[in-house]
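User: Please fill in residues for this 123-position structure.
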């Protein structure tokens, strides 16, 4: 934003806003170790992806939040459905998403159709 608005500190996944594009093939196993370096708790919700309940990232309901300043959590599940999804926190999402914690989660078909170009836009 231009003056007189102050700069807003971005929070990132792997140093990028949006976070890195995650791309898998239908039926593959997804595994990521999340280390929380924020000064507050967080989770990751895999929006639209059918996951085991314990991997859904809803704090205090399907998992305990990942502790601030070094807490870790392993998300691991098979991706059954092809589609374009996204990931984001459910812990204080109004601020964490607003500061940049989100990204594209794409599951390609087992036998994808031929295309000239595949472009991902996250707005």
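Assistant: Residues filled in for all 123 positions:
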């Amino acid at each position: 934003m231009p003056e007189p608005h102050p700069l807003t500190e971005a929070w990132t996944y792997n140093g990028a806003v949006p976070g890195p594009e995650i791309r898998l093939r239908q039926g593959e196993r997804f595994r990521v170790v999340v280390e929380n370096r924020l000064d507050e708790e967080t989770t990751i919700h895999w929006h639209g992806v059918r996951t085991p309940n314990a991997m859904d990232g809803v704090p205090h309901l399907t998992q305990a939040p990942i502790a601030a300043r070094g807490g870790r959590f392993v998300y691991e599940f098979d991706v059954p459905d092809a589609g374009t999804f996204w990931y984001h926190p459910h812990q204080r999402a109004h601020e964490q998403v607003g500061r940049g914690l989100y990204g594209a989660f794409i599951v390609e078909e087992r036998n994808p159709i031929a295309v000239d170009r595949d472009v991902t836009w996250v707005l």
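For context: The mean pLDDT is 96.
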